[in-house]
Give the backbone structure.
Amino acid sequence: MPQRAQRSALSRLWGQPRVRATVWQVGTGLAVLAALLWFQGNLAANLARRSLDLGFDFLWGPASFELGDNPVGYAAGDSFLLAFAAGLGNTLQVAAIGIALTACTGVAVALLRLSHNPLTAGAAKLYVEIARNTPLLLQLMFWHQLIVRVLPGPRLAWNPVPGVFLSNRGLIVPVLGWQPAFGWALAALALGIVLAVMARRRIAWLLPVLLPLGALASAQPMAFDVPVLRGFNFAGGTTLSPEMVALVWALVFYQGSFAAETIRGGILGVPKGLTEAAASLGLSRAKATRLVVMPLALRIAIPPLTSQFMSLTKNSSLAVAIGYPDLVRVSNVAISETGRAVECIVITLAVYLVLSLATALAMNGWNARLLQRGT
Amino acid sequence: MNASPRPPPALRIAPLQRVRTLFFASVPNGVATLFMLWLLWQIVPAAWRYFVTDALTAPADIKQCVQAGGFCWSFVQDRWRQILFGTFPYTEHWRAGLACVVFLSLIVVTLLALGAPTGRRRLRLVGLAWAAGLALIAALMYGGVFGLVPVQSRLWAGLPLTLMLAAVGTGLGFVLGVALALARREGPPLIRWLAVAYIEFLRGVPLISLLFVASILLPLLLPPGVDVDKLVRTLLAFALFFAAYMAEALRGGLAAVPQGQKDAAAALGLGWWRMQWLVVMPQALRVVVPSLVNIFIAAFKDTSLVVVISMMDLLGTANIARSDAAWWGLYIEPYVFIGAIYLCGCTAMAAYSRHIERRMAKGAA
């Protein structure tokens, strides 16, 4: 054809997929590189104008702010590095408690929503709709205000269970004094579980109950560090700040609804034939749920649940709005104290990124193992 | 004698029987029923007292409200305009209200168009509607044309700001998301690698820290002297953030398009771009409409995070109204008021998303 003959060498070259791909890649790579260089140049100019420099040396300098209770034991005067560690510790602590409680809430609400009782199913649905369809930050601020305003001062603190106090100072709970007998009891529990699994008899499951009890019999009288009201505040026990209580409560309330829907999806995803088979074997509804449905449902639900737990961890950063000293808040306070915005934001982003990627890798590994086993 | 046949006895027992199987089938079930009844007994009268009996509907001040002990409707009557429109000039509130109406109609039109088994022409109409609508909204909000008083963008607040961040943020995010999804699935290695890095990075960090990047870091990354409006920077952060989630949703849709479709398009002589635009994308989009709606719901809720960088969206204006001296001490009313707005919007959209999903499931079966 005459048209083809007229095509230039250049357009013929462009017609080859490999050439085209190379051109696109080189072009994109150069564009990204140029953008990065441009940002870097601007950053250098801006920092020079404010006579700032970049560097992480400030992390070893002393920080002057207080953060309240934290798992690392940071106090004003310690290094910024320790302050960031305290923030990360607080984030992880809230995430761990939140994930555990969310999982329990999720399973419970999912089962309630699937129950044949219209009252419980309706109540569960109402909860899910309200919790899912309002912003987490709104819920968090609401619960925080409620805790600070409605709960009484320490002198009139609510005392639902002996030793547990709920007041506008937070949740005060007793802590158990550690003694060697507890170690033995834990060992006995582990041994009991191993024995019970090996024995493959239902009766053997009494062992993990009885063995630790036997070990505990040798214990000293339990030494609880019980909080007592002294003057205007509590002595003893451990105090969870109102901010932490509000944060955990709001996170569990919000994420629990998503977890419930995911688990419900998992349960509905279990083929009906399996439930019917369980019923025809004579298993009761409760037993069929526990032995047949839940193990399969959790297998379906666990990948999406993991990403929800990850988003719970990321959402714990909303703590900054009510002043709970999580990682993001520490970073903000550090920015206002040192002016090192770039470094502090980079640290925050990097920490969350590492957490997410580690979770994703673990999840992928777990999935791959499941696929390999073919179950 | 009565000749008419008596109704079978089973029918008379049936309701009771049903009650028994539903509410008292087993001991735990019975306990649950009794517990729920007790809970209702506790909650319903209390809620009735709080919202109706003890609530003051007539104009009242904070003292009277606190004394009555119920929901303070007069606070809502007094402050609803402040909560909805915030710092927008009081006499110009109708403009902000009109902008909200335009936004809501655009969102409804888009959702309906996405839900219908679409033709490309209808999508083009939706695009035109957005262009016209956004121009109208910009005119209403900025002013300065048709004799409207100019209003600076830092005075925009409340519902218009919330809707703008959600709609424009996800709209831009969608465009970028399509590009990212295609790059991740079809691109040559370097481009694919860049797309993966971008998506995983954005999905790995919390939105809050990204908002801090937009409000603190971004001004440092722009040439000295260049001052980009904070609203634009925040919109950009939302778009960049939700683009990653949209891309992941779209990737699922792209994977669902059978290879045969692409082969057929290639056999017809379509180039890569036209193949994607005419054959692949329409099919992929249809599959992911429910996920896209869910991302939009998440974005609508997550716009509230801008209060952390001191922008006054709906939650921000509610906080302002709460800390007002005239109504000092109220905290349930403002949150319940805006909570109801969010709840209505999100529940409606979620119900619509489930409706589309069900219809798709039926179509597939």
User: Anything to note?
Assistant: Chain B touches chain A through 57 residues (CB under 8 Å).
